[in-house]
Amino acid sequence: DMPVESPDNVPPLSVDSNVKDEKPVNRKMYRRSINMLSFSIAKLRKQTPYKVVRKIVLSLWFQVLMLIVILADFVSFLVYTIDDTETNSSVYDVVTIIAICFCMVEI
User: Which residue windows are transmembrane per the record (predicted)?
Assistant: First the structure.
């Protein structure tokens, strides 16, 4: 996989002349980020649509999972504040941490 070369005439980000405290744009970083972006787009184009669709579905599924976990956490928190009885919020915390780790891996 060859990375896609970005053109040399990359326009720098426009900087207001009024703002004197702002540092000049780091051109190397700017170019590198553009390189990375074009490379990832090229990789996406090379992949079969099935793989792309699968990835999107997986990420959506993890987002739904996160929503469910957050809602469960919120409900348990509400129940805990209304009743003074102990709820197993530690279980919810563990599940939340696991879900966050899954999301990080997916991203």
Answer: 56-82
